[in-house]
Every structure is written in structure tokens, then in C-alpha cells.
Amino acid sequence: CISYTDSFCINPTNWDFGASWVYRISISSEKNQENKRKNRNLMACNHPLPSTSTNHDSTTKVTDMDMDSLVHCASHLTLQDLSNMAISCKFLNRVVSSDSIWRRLFRERWPQQEAYIISQTSGVREAYMARYRALQQFKFFDPLVCDVYIGAKSSDLLFSKDSIIFSQGPLIQILDIDKLLEGKVVFAPLNDHRARITSMRLFPLKETSLFRNEAQINENVLVTSSCDHSIRLWWKGSCQRCFRGHNGPVTILSDKLLGDGTGKVFASGGEDSTVRLWSLSSSGKRGQHALKGTLYGHEKPIVLMSVTGHRASLIVSMSKDSKVRVWDASISASDRNSSCVGTTSVSGVPVGMKCHDSLIYIAAGSSIEAVDLRTMKRVFRTSTHQGKLYSFDIMPSNFLACTGGLGRAMLWDIRRSTGTTEACPMAELDGHIGPVTHLHMDPYKIVTGGPKDPNVNIWQADNGNQTNILISSPLDNAGCSGLAADGFRIVTAGYNQEEGVLRFRDFSNAVSSGSSTDQITGSKFWCPSTSGDADDSDG
Questions:
Q1: Mean pLDDT of residues grouped by 10 in the chain (539 residues)?
Q2: Angle ∠(288,290,292) on CA atoms, nearest 5
Q3: Residue 144 domain flag
Q4: How many domains would you assign to the chain?
Q5: Domain final residue pick, 96, 111, 137
Q6: Is the pTM of this model over 0.70?
Q7: What is the DSSP string of 205-242?
Q8: Which residue among 114, 137, 160 closes a domain?
């Protein structure tokens, strides 16, 4: 007889699935209650307490609990927790497969699909996952669409929760998505920079001295670099820190923070050929004492940076002359010779670079190559046969990479390229006009676009099949000047030398879907925009 309390819960994210199955949940039982009564009687009679050895009758394994009880507990978990629970063992996978759990998730995420949910007598989990996957891949004709005219050309688009962040020269604009969905255009301008913005990053607020309490645990700060030689940290609509130290324009910021635990730092690269390390925990509006180190060794401006995956203190930088250096931020920067722990070089103009585990993947010229950071030896190098690369992204955990060339993009299986100099692409993503300069890649989709092409193309990440074609903006003779995707949402920027516009799409509640073939071979104009001219349709 198991009695539950309000505090009883299962949190599979805290389980170590690599260890032996010894997970136990303490529960109340009739026998356990009887033992407690006996112990109290013994104490009252001044008898010694019974042995304190573990009483296995008072605990039980998760797998000893009945299915209905576990389903009841699991119905209160998030989608991520359910996913973790499903991969732990076959028994819990069966628990997670219960239709009652997925009906609740379906109803909470898509309440307008209530009739469809009720009609499903079985396979609700499969129906939920199929719709979730289709929405992630933008396989619908009727997303919510909002156009925002912004005047000048925009770049460096970012999603930050319920905001869209973009730059226009030295100006940073933050667009409130919630207000936009209410029909209001509300911008929060950040205008302290005096020259063009070169890089924008979002870092956790909890790693800064601005963090005050647990209510702020999921908030981020915006960090930007500029040609005005400065780096600025923004929060709550104003500049909280200004970092100065570079002797020229700051060209790039690290993609992640360096270090473990407290005292993390971020890195910057500049036209002065230096890499500089900055503390986010330093106080003072002017960022005094924030500069923790200056790393010398490059001879040309820094153009790319990436923090390694196997050691949080290592960062890789690449200069305009395609020279690559690995730095250890944990070593005192005063010792110029020891901070640099590895060097190499590649052929061609740098295009993109990304670290995963102990490997660094580099796209330069017309080739992709990987270097093992432990030995600085080249693992593989393969030509893309695209003449010149314009963009690059990679999902090493799925062994996939994508490159943007002239008129097409290519999807690569990294495993097929290992140890070779020539490799065939997994798929050719054709149909573009001009160079593919903008590329987004996540586990569900690939998004490609370019300044000469009025359309943005959507592809399945696992096989390269096309799922949709989206018009980047309502402007005539305008290409795509920028894009960002986040789950069910995408924002594209268009510019026609006179006017700039952002087009925001939210597929969360889209319902009209069709086959990829129907979308591509038929009209590209499927459904009127919810906030544009009646003549401007969109898919």
C-alpha cells in the first residue's frame, strides 16, 4: 500500500543512467508504519534501539512500482524530463509511452487541436512527436506572419526568449515579440556604440556580478563588440559595463564562456591581432580590472573564435591569414610563451570554425577539415567542390555539416570524410540564386539564404529533403540580408537598397500542412500573410 505526498516526484534528469540500477524511492507502507510504532514503544521503555542497518523492506526500486502510479507521477514532468526517462530503460520507456501523458502535453501545447486529440484512441505519443517534428521543420503553409519595416539594412539577427535582437551600423535594436503579436511595434534601442557592431553574444546573467537571486537564473546578458574599439555588456535596456583594451576595432567574441565554476571569462579578438580575456564578474560601470589577460602570437586580425568542448579553459582563434592558435586561459597570460598550447594552419580564406569535444572543424577556401586539439594533427580534409565557400555550420553530435556555395548548399556526413581527401556530399541543396551566405542548422532543419535570393529554403537536417520555401520579405528586388531560427520561429531580414524589413514567422499553431513535393512544384504563394498586403502571400 503506497501513499503519496505532494512532495513526491521523479526527476530523471538527476539520474545517472551510466551507473548500476540501484535507484530507490522511499515510500510509506503499512509495514514501515508498524516498524515506526514499535521503535517508539521501545524508546518509551528505555530499551536499546534496534539495529540501524538498512531496512530494505522500507524502500523499493522504481521498477517495483505499479504502472499506473508511475504514469501519474510522469504526467507532471516536462517534455525534456520525459525524453530522459524514455531512454533510461525499457520499463520506463513503456511508462512514458502512456497515451494519458501525451494527451496532456498535446492539450497544453496545442489547445486548438482538442478535437483531434479526442479522436485519437491510441498512438497519441507518435501523433505528438510527428506534429512537433513537422513544426520544427516548418512543414506548414499558414504560420503567423508579421512584417516590421526598419528603414536601414540589418544584420546579426538573434532570438532572445521573447525578443529579436539585431544591429544597424552602431545601433542595436531589441524588438518585443509579445507586443508584436498584439499588433504593436515596440523597439528598445541601445545606442552607446559609436561605430559598426561586429559581433553579438548572449551569456548567462548568473555568471556576472549583476546576478542577485534565483529568480534571474534563466536570464541572459547581451555582449557586443564594435569597430569603436570597445565591448559593451547590456542588461535591462542599458549598458552595464564597457570593456576597453584593444588597440583597434574588436572583430569577434567567443561563442561561449571559458572556465569552470565561478570566475568565468569571455574572449575577444581584434584587428590588433590580439586575443583578450575579460571577466564578467568585475564590478564598475567602466569595467575596471575586467581585463584578465592579453594573448599575443597572431600576426593578422582575428576573424574566428571557438571554445573547445573537452576542456573549458581552451579557446581556438583563427586569423585572417588562416593561422590557428589554441590558448589555455587557465595559464597566466603574463607568460606569453606558455599560454599558446597549439598551432596549425589551413589553406584558403577562413569561412567558419566550430569546436566539438577534442576536435576543431574548420571551413576555409573550398574545403572542410578537422584537427585533433590534443595532438594538433589533421584528422581529415575534404574538398567541397564548390569553388568558394560562403557559409558553414556543423552538428558534430549528428556527424553532419553544411556548407554554402554559389547557387547551392551541400550537406555532408562527417563519418564518410574521415581520412579522405575527396568525399561526396550526402545531399545537394539546389535552387538558390547567388551565394548562400546565411545558414542555420539544428537537429531538425537547415535554413539557407543569400543576398541575391528573395527566398529562404528549408531542408530536413537528416537527409536534405526540402520541406518549404519562404519569401524572405515583402519588398520587391530584395534578397535575404540575415536570418535567425529558434524552434518553431524564424525571422528573416530583407533589403532592397532603399528599405529594410524584418519578417517574423511563428509556426507554433500552424495547421495546414502538405508534402514537400506539393510545396516546391506548385505555387510558392500558399497563404495570405496575417500582417501584410493581401497580395503578398507566404508559405
A1: 32 36 33 49 46 55 82 88 89 89 90 79 85 96 96 92 96 96 95 97 91 89 97 95 96 94 89 95 70 95 96 96 95 70 95 95 94 92 84 91 95 76 84 96 97 96 96 94 97 94 96 57 31 40
A2: 135
A3: no
A4: 2
A5: 137
A6: yes
A7: GGGSTT--SGGGTT-EEEEEEETTSEEEEEETTEEEEE
A8: 137
